[in-house]
C-alpha cells in the first residue's frame, strides 16, 4: 500500500511498543528514538502518548530539543498523539502547564477530559473518513484554540481532538491502541508529501 519509510517513535516514555507494532503491521520501518543521532535518516517522527511532563524532562536530559526542532524545520512530518499533541503545541493552559516544543499553532488544555478515571472510548466523525473512527481517550487533552493555517479534522463534545498544520498531525486519543490504522495512514501520506516537497525545494 505504501513504500516503507523509516519512522521514528520517540522512545523516552509512554506508548512506544504499541506504535512500533502498528507501524510493522503497515510494513513500515520503525526506529526507536532515544538520542539525537537516532533522528538521522528518518522520514517521519511519532511522539507518543504518555506523561507529557516526564517526556519533556527526558527530551531535555537526552539533548533532543534542538534536534527535534531541526527535524521539524527541515519539513519532516511529525505525528503527536495524546501527550505528543501537548508537546507539539505552542502553549498549554490551565493548572497543568508543561513546557512544549512550540511547533504547532495550537493552544492545548492538558488533561482536558479529566484524569485517568475519566478515560473513555467513543466513535467520532473525522474529516474525509466515510466511517466513524473509534477513539480511545486516556487522560486526554483537547485543543482549546487554533491559529491560522491549522486544519481541524475531528471534534468530540465540541472540543477539538485532531488537527493538522503543514507537516504536523496531532490527535488527543490513542490510534495505536486500535486496529484502525486510518490515522497512521494519514501520517504516512503526509511523509510522502513532505518528502516530495523537500526534494523539490532542495
Automatic annotation (TrEMBL):
Active site per database record: 82, 174, 176
Matching entries from Pfam families are given as: SNO
Which InterPro entries did the record assign? Class_I_gatase-like (IPR029062), PdxT/SNO (IPR002161), PdxT/SNO_CS (IPR021196)
Q: Which domain of life is it from?
A: Bacteria
Q: Which reaction does it catalyse?
A: L-glutamine + H2O = L-glutamate + NH4(+); aldehydo-D-ribose 5-phosphate + D-glyceraldehyde 3-phosphate + L-glutamine = pyridoxal 5'-phosphate + L-glutamate + phosphate + 3 H2O + H(+)
Q: What Enzyme Commission number does this protein have? A: 4.3.3.6, 3.5.1.2
Give the pathway annotation.
Cofactor biosynthesis; pyridoxal 5'-phosphate biosynthesis
Enumerate the UniProt keywords alphabetically: Glutamine amidotransferase, Hydrolase, Lyase, Pyridoxal phosphate
User: Which sites bind L-glutamine?
Assistant: 50-52, 110, 138-139
PANTHER family registered for this protein in UniProt: PYRIDOXAL 5'-PHOSPHATE SYNTHASE SUBUNIT SNO, PYRIDOXAL 5'-PHOSPHATE SYNTHASE SUBUNIT SNO1-RELATED
Indicate the family of this protein: Belongs to the glutaminase PdxT/SNO family.
What does this gene product do?
A: Catalyzes the hydrolysis of glutamine to glutamate and ammonia as part of the biosynthesis of pyridoxal 5'-phosphate. The resulting ammonia molecule is channeled to the active site of PdxS.
HAMAP family according to UniProt: PdxT (MF_01615)
Q: What does the subunit section of this Swiss-Prot or TrEMBL entry state?
A: In the presence of PdxS, forms a dodecamer of heterodimers. Only shows activity in the heterodimer.
Protein name in UniProt: Pyridoxal 5'-phosphate synthase subunit PdxT
Q: Which organism is it from?
A: Oceanobacillus kimchii
Which gene is this protein's source? pdxT
